[in-house]
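Appendix C: a fully annotated inverse folding record. The material below is reproduced so that readers can follow the format used throughout the book. The structure is listed first as tokens, followed by the designed sequence.
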């Protein structure tokens, strides 16, 4: 089976983790600090604060903005549930804009339509490794006086107009096992602002600025040196990994071109796509479950990210802090999307197998 994602870390990572084990400093220490420095440099942020998950990164980023109860955050309905859960956990009310069908990120016009006097934060999601429309979204944010938090959990190193995602507002990255860079579980918050970085470090460590000097009720959001040790060697090879993913995406697009009704992902002009996922939209009327089964029988793994808009579950209905309005593009896209393997561990020939399986599954449907 060609898996849609796979974790293969290699001997450098083993050495790096062993060195931490032998050092005796296994909780947060110098390796976390080095990870923060190097990740900030990679994406072009002034400050990076490591935390224990991407979800925690989002919670901490929103907490650092010190919202009042009832303040609103506008986000994308086409995202992993963590985005929504983090907003609720931080005590804010959530509203949803609709997405654009070409980049799967928030549509600036639909965001403008959701703004109320209580709206404080715009929280775009950079899905599948491509930046959302930050030109349009930053214009709306400035015009409406909104703070910006970016969910960049899938987009380490993605750019728009040459600028890294996570540097427009407060950036939130995930280092979960299946993300393009991993610490097993882990996250990073990036910011340009020294004061925000300081608040994040305090929130991460029980609200403590110095020993027993409590400035806010905080939490334990810390990452460990053992976890951070996993990612340092991955950072070295990240540019090469991105080049492979990029070439894989190009090859898939070449081989899948011309299938009637099948919509292929594209790198939009001015955006540096990092190909966390290669996501197609099936032709109208194709049974997705049957298509995925057919791929599986041909030895090709796939994933549905995500099958429904994130608010479209019973637990989020009838809550005063979840304001649901129709998002027709997100509904249509979530009903048709399928992600195919594009990762750097694909073998020569795997891309041909994937493309042949897609053609065969569509002919059978
Ligand atoms: C993975 C992911 C998260 C959450 O990250 P965790 O590290 O799993 O907590 C948030 N948002 C998006 C879009 C993600 O893909």
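Designed amino acids, in order:
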């Amino acid at each position: 089976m060609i898996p849609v994602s796979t974790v293969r870390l290699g001997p450098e990572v083993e050495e790096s983790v062993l060195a931490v084990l032998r050092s005796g400093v296994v909780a947060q220490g110098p390796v976390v600090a080095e990870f923060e420095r190097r990740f900030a440099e990679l994406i072009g942020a002034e400050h990076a604060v490591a935390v224990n998950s991407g979800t925690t990164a989002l919670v901490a980023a929103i907490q650092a903005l010190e919202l009042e109860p009832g303040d609103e955050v506008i986000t994308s309905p086409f995202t992993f549930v963590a985005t929504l859960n983090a907003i609720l956990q931080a005590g804010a009310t959530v509203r949803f804009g609709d997405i654009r069908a070409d980049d799967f990120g928030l549509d600036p016009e639909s965001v403008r339509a959701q703004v109320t006097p209580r709206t404080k934060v715009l929280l775009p999601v950079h899905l599948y490794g491509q930046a959302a429309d930050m030109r349009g979204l930053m214009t709306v944010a400035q015009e409406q006086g909104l703070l910006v938090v970016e969910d960049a959990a899938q987009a380490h190193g993605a750019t728009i107009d040459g600028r890294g995602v996570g540097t427009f507002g407060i950036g939130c990255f995930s280092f979960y096992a299946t993300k393009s860079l991993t610490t097993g579980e882990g996250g990073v918050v990036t910011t340009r602002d020294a004061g925000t970085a300081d608040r994040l470090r305090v929130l991460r460590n029980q609200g403590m600025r110095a020993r027993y000097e409590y400035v806010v009720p905080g939490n334990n959001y810390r990452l460990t040196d053992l976890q951070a040790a996993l990612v340092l060697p991955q950072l070295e090879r990240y540019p090469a990994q991105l080049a492979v993913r990029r070439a894989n995406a190009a090859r898939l697009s070449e081989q899948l071109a011309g299938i009637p009704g099948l919509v292929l992902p594209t790198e939009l002009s001015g955006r540096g796509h990092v190909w966390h996922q290669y996501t197609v939209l099936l032709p109208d009327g194709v049974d997705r479950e049957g298509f995925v089964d057919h791929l599986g029988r041909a030895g090709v793994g796939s994933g549905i990210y995500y099958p429904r808009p994130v608010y479209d579950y019973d637990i989020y209905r009838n809550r005063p802090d979840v304001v649901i309005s129709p998002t027709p593009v997100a509904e249509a896209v979530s009903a048709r999307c399928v992600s195919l393997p594009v990762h750097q561990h694909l073998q020569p020939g795997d891309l041909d197998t994937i493309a042949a399986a897609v053609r065969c599954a569509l002919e059978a449907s």
